[in-house]
Every structure is written in structure tokens, then in C-alpha cells.
Amino acid sequence: MSEIKIVFTGSMGAGKSSAIATISEIPVINTDVRATDLETAQRKEKTTVAMDYGELTLEDGQKLRLYGTPGQQRFDYMWKILTKGALGLIILIDNAGSDPIGDLARYLDNFHEFITETTAVIGITRTDISNEPSIEAYYTFLQNRGIQLPLFPIDARSKESVVMLIQALVAMLEFG
Hints:
It is a single chain. The protein is built from seven helices and seven strands. By secondary structure, the protein is α/β, with parallel strands linked by helices. The chain has a single domain, classed as Rossmann fold, CATH 3.40.50.300. A seven-stranded mixed beta sheet has the order 2-3-4-1-5-6-7, with helices on both faces. The radius of gyration is 15 Å and the shape is globular.
């Protein structure tokens, strides 16, 4: 049985922990602690400080090992550690955040080398709370940077949405 490592990253509150919990067939291992800085505490009670971990077995017997990075910049030292040996990256962006396109730019920049060596897909969450920026604005941003990655509006609590992101990532790995 082969194993595939996939990393979920993205802005704080975008749904990384929720996405992993939605599809994991084991209880998610997390490193959530009470949020102590004011900005984080205003948005959520707990925050990930090292990683989330879950597993999913595919129909062909392959095991997906699902890792979630901390969303806060101050824990960015974990990002490279968690991507070591991963086959791909799922970037989640909170559309209701203060600067979602800026957040996407930050993650694309920080993971540029990894994305160049593997690939990534992008999920835009919380579009039900804020429909601006539009999905078209994200596509324009990517196009202006010369980046061609799949991008989907998703609900991180929906198994179908998370599976769609994984399927898109696998397709990118297979077909480039």
C-alpha cells in the first residue's frame, strides 16, 4: 500500500482544520491552543500552532496523509517542515478576511519553490459570507502573475468540496 502526503495551507480561519476533519477517517491529531493574540482571538477561540493530521484511504488502497499548516505568519517555520516529502499543496483562502488576494499572494510566494517542484490547487472559502473579491478577481490575479492553478469556491466543511480539491490536485500531478 502506497502513501501520499498532501499539505493544506492558507490563511487563518480559512478552514484547514475543518477540511482535514471533514474527510479524515481517523480522529484528527491537532495542536490547537487557545488564541492569545487579540487579532486571532477576535476571529476564533483556538488556533493551530504546529499542525493538524488526518488520514484517508482511497478506493485503490493508497493512504492519503493529510497535514495542515498553521495559518499565522509567526508559525511559518512549520511550513517547510510539513511540505517535506509532500506530493502537493492545497491552499485555502478565507474570502471574508481583510485581504484575501494579499493572503493568496503571500502563500504563493512562500511556497513558490515547492509549487514549482510539485503543484497546488486553491480553494476559496467563506464565499457565502463575502462574495468579494469575486472568483474572477482571483483568476485575474493569477493570470497577471503568470500562474495557472485550479481555483474553486469551496465549503471546507463539505466532504464533496474537499474531495474535489484532492481530485483536482491528483489530476494536476498526473497530467500537469
